[in-house]
Amino acid sequence: MGQSIGNETLKVGSRLMRSQSALALGSNIGESQAILEAAIEILAQTPGIFLEAKSNWYRTKAVGPPQPDYLNGCAILQVEISPQKLLETLLGIEQTFGRVRQERWGPRTLDLDLLLYDDLILQTPNLQIPHPRMRERAFVLVPLAEIAPDWVDPVTGCVIKELLKQVDCSDVHLLMGN
Q: How far is Cα 15 from Cα 13, in angstroms, rounded to an integer?
């Protein structure tokens, strides 16, 4: 009995176990707000994934090469699938919206990042939880603090609202008409 991270689904005995997960969403190509809303809808309709909360959308300056501003937000999910299976699901949704990985930190139709999964600390060749740069990024911490201010980062032991105080939020602006 217990949680088995490598399995497709998480079970305790014969019942499915739910874990809480935090995601960051971003887009700066195409109709970004419509793309982000559609991605949330797909997540909410995916078996084993339950939408618990969604932040407002924020307009943010892009990190990396010159490119349009992003729309960013976060979502909290309850999941009955492993972190690896969740990552595979997120990558599949990105591909559905035409995501092509050509340039690091380049423009994209949709970016879905797995930030947190319960209090798990995980490092594999293709997945690191918590997300390795989340603590440095106001465009992640502002929307995450809106919906999960007291979630404890398992690496630092700090809650999200405290991590937020350590970053410059001047380029993160609430999108009007959310």
A: 6
| Residue 119 is among the residues annotated as catalytic for this protein | no
168 included as an active-site residue: no
Name the catalytic one among 69, 113, 119, 171. 113
| Maximum CA extent, the chain | 51
DSSP-derived 3-state class of residue 17: coil
Cα distance between residue 171 and residue 55, in whole Å = 17
The model carries a pTM of 0.89
171 in active site:
no
The pLDDT tens digits of the residues spanning 75-125 come to 999 999 999 999 999 999 999 998 666 656 668 899 999 999 999 999 999
b/e burial code for range 20-30 (CB count within 10 A of at least 16 → b): ebbbbbbbbbe
Helical H segments across 2-154, by residue range: 32-45, 83-96, 138-147
Phi, psi for 158 (deg, rounded to 5): -95, 145
